[in-house]
Design brief:
About 55% of the residues lie in helices and about 10% in strands. By secondary structure, it is an alpha+beta fold. The longest helix has 21 residues, at about 530-550.
């Protein structure tokens, strides 16, 4: 990370020597430009933006102690223009101090200047301060605080006292209506407030003078978070901008530590009602972190910097790249709270350019610290991995260890249901996890909620896994579903029952509950997409039960007429089918015998009943329709399976694909299954691709002859 040799003042391009800019820190670079910026201001006044004029569009600068500029930052191959706060230097000694230059003369500040030196107040609360603060706590409205301040000598109002008084005034004013209902009334000019505005402004100004003059980061941050909650009209609250200016000034002087700069950024993210304005303001503090990056050495500081990422905009990428490297350096010292906060931030900002080493580090940390993590914390971490869409073998081993070691003793039901959701999402067909889930369900079935039951019950069908608990598991599950059927959402209960079909478990007892007017009305009370999805899956359930279950009394749904709406086909399969048309046509020696995207017209309109490619026995057969009762054994259905059609290890097809193949086989079709990854690998070698297709075709043809 390095600074480029140009610093931009709005309207003017100021050029500096490369040697100086590459040697100095961001703060020193900003201060060395003060003299040149003063010259630039005279030229800029006539332009669109004015730095020290009341018409300046950007940040309000009532004290005229700071101005704004911008700097080009290079991070790898990316160059960004970031905002920069520049302190105006009016004293040569101050400029020498920032540049670490000893003055050539023995000039010393005058007695008058000595009075302006910063007074550092002690962090501990004295007895006098504690007594005054107790007096504020006994006040019941802001007016009583003003009267109490009138009796306190000015010298006894320390920054700590002033900060507490500010907080108490705003707290009492914000809760005044709740404590005194009906005491305020609406007028043409707005809501009439009980406190005296002139008196309020006088005391608020005095208190803010004390807070700002303290130069103590903790006091200033407390004041900043306090005035942020002030509900007084903005035209009477210009002191907010003054306190904000003081924050910028202290950060530019290096008085705030990295953690305190992070707190300031988080406060400023809520400082205005306009979110965009909040991000623009918080972005101006990025240099306070970058300039002190050598101080980021512990886990607390790393986590604090991570927490600022959602509240930054232009400078987010610079901070993110820097803090990712720091996190990898201190990962062994991270605690559970640090990991949870970092994962919360990563999930919130949803960036795709995350360093892959970060989730790998978190997965490794979880494996090493598993015994120290509480169940609720483990739930938060695993759910965050699900939100991040990240999985690796170490994380799978960690989940297996949780189920194997704790098993039925897990008290957090959501932890087990979340693990099931993770297994479904990433297609993790782990016997250890799935067997443990079946035992856990039998042990805790009476205590589980509907969403938890749905997650634990559907995982077996989705992954085509038969638990060893067998008959007992399905009997207890059927009893629970009978009892809580009406509590399930219509789309969820349909999906759940179809998952049973995947593993050849036929829920005959629920057909009367599905195909009745009451349940159909519930289906149409959902959102438009849920209604469409529920109707599609209900057709699949009806056709699947008719095809495989002898005791089924259906079909209960009418036949589709015409071409209705259908879920879009995966474009990868469509493109691959078009590519395979020519080589398959050469193999069967007749292109007219090859069909693409063949719908089984006698069956419901569903993606499960649309064949990717069909090899007909003759050209005339391409004109026939296919159904349950037609002779289909002479036709070969070609199915292309994507990587997500297999489990995590790419060894076993998932439940829906198993059901699709089984239904086609029951209808008499011969099946050729082709792996998309294999076809993609052979796509550039036509001879090997033809040989692969020819071998698969011969296997099916020879099998029929036998």
């Amino acid at each position: 990370m390095s600074f480029m040799s140009k610093i931009v003042v709005p309207g003017i391009l100021c050029q500096q020597q490369n040697k100086i800019l590459f040697r100095l820190s961001p703060l020193a670079v900003a201060n060395t430009l003060n003299k040149q910026q003063e010259k630039c201001e005279a030229q800029i006044i006539g332009g669109k933006r004015m730095l020290s004029n009341s018409g300046y569009i950007g940040f309000r600068n009532p004290g005229a102690r700071i101005s704004e500029s911008s700097v080009f930052m290079q991070n790898g191959t990316k160059i960004s223009e970031l905002p920069l706060i520049v302190k105006k230097v009016k004293d040569i000694f101050e400029l020498y101090k920032w540049m670490d230059i000893k003055p050539a003369s023995d000039l010393q500040p005058t007695e008058k200047e000595k009075d302006n030196f910063i007074l550092v107040f002690p962090d501990k609360v004295s007895e006098e301060e504690r007594e005054i603060i107790s007096g504020f706590n006994r006040c019941f409205n802001s007016s009583s605080i003003f009267r109490l301040l009138e009796t306190i000598p000015r010298t006894e109002v320390t920054p700590l006292v002033a900060s507490h008084a500010l907080r108490k005034i705003i707290e009492l004013e914000n809760t005044y209506e709740l404590r005194n209902p009906g005491s305020t009334r609406e007028t043409i000019r707005g809501t009439r407030r009980g406190q005296d505005t002139f008196l309020r402004m006088a005391f608020m100004t005095m208190l803010l003078d004390i807070v700002c003059g303290s130069k103590q980061p903790k006091v200033i941050l407390d004041g900043l978070s306090t005035v942020m909650r002030d509900q007084f009209p903005s035209d009477l609250a210009t002191y907010k901008e003054r306190l904000l200016e003081e924050v910028f000034l202290c950060v530019s002087e290096g008085r705030f530590s990295v953690t305190e700069v992070c707190k300031a950024i988080n406060i400023l993210s809520l400082f205005y009602e306009d979110r965009k304005r909040c991000l623009e303001t918080a972005d101006k503090l990025w240099f306070g972190i970058v300039d002190q990056q050598k101080q980021i050495l512990d886990a607390d500081t790393v986590t604090a910097v991570f927490s600022t990422l959602p509240n930054l905009n232009k400078s987010r990428n610079i901070i993110k790249k820097m803090i990712e490297k720091k996190a990898l350096d201190v990962w062994e010292s991270l605690e559970t709270a640090h990991i949870i906060e970092m994962m919360r931030v990563i999930s919130e900002i949803k960036y795709d350019s995350i360093n892959s080493a970060i989730p790998q580090m978190m997965s490794q940390w979880l494996a090493l610290n598993l015994n120290k993590i509480q169940e609720t914390e483990m739930l938060a971490i695993i759910y965050s991995f699900l939100q991040l869409d990240y999985m690796d073998d170490k994380l799978i081993n960690t989940m297996e260890k949780i189920i194997r070691v704790k098993g039925c003793q897990i008290q957090e039901f959501d932890l087990v249901s979340t693990i099931c959701n993770v297994c479904i999402h990433f297609r993790i067909r782990s016997p250890v996890i799935l067997e443990g889930v079946s035992e856990y369900f039998l042990h805790n079935k009476a205590k589980l909620s509907v969403p938890q039951i749905y997650s634990m019950a559907s995982v077996f069908g989705e992954l085509d896994f038969h638990p060893t608990t067998g008959f007992k598991f399905w009997k207890e599950l059927e009893y629970v579903l009978e009892e809580k059927f009406v509590q399930f959402k219509p789309n969820e209960i349909i999906e759940l029952l179809i998952s049973f079909l995947y593993i050849e478990k036929y829920p005959l007892n629920f057909t009367n509950k599905l195909f009745n007017p009451y349940f159909l009305d519930r289906i149409h009370s959902q959102t438009e997409f849920e209604v469409f999805r529920s109707r599609q899956q209900l057709k699949l359930f009806d056709a699947g039960m008719q095809l495989e279950c002898k005791g089924y009394g259906g079909p209960f749904l009418p036949k589709d007429i015409g071409y209705l709406r259908l879920e879009p086909k995966d474009q990868r399969i469509v493109t691959m089918c078009e590519f395979l048309f020519d080589p398959l046509g050469e193999i069967v020696e007749d292109y007219s015998r090859i069909g693409i995207g063949i719908r089984l017209t006698a069956l419901p309109l569903h993606n499960n009943y649309i064949v990717d490619m069909m090899i007909y026995p003759t050209r005339a057969s391409a004109l026939l329709s296919f159904g349950f009762l037609t002779e289909n054994s002479s036709n070969i259905a070609v199915l292309i399976n994507l990587p997500e059609h297999y489990d995590w290890k790419q060894e076993h097809l998932i439940g829906n694909q198993i059901l699709k193949i089984r239904h086609l086989q029951r209808m008499g079709f011969r099946i050729i299954t082709l792996r998309y990854s294999k076809l993609k690998e052979l796509k550039s070698n036509s001879e090997k691709l033809k040989e692969y297709l020819r071998q698969e075709y011969r296997n099916v043809v020879d099998k029929k002859k036998k």
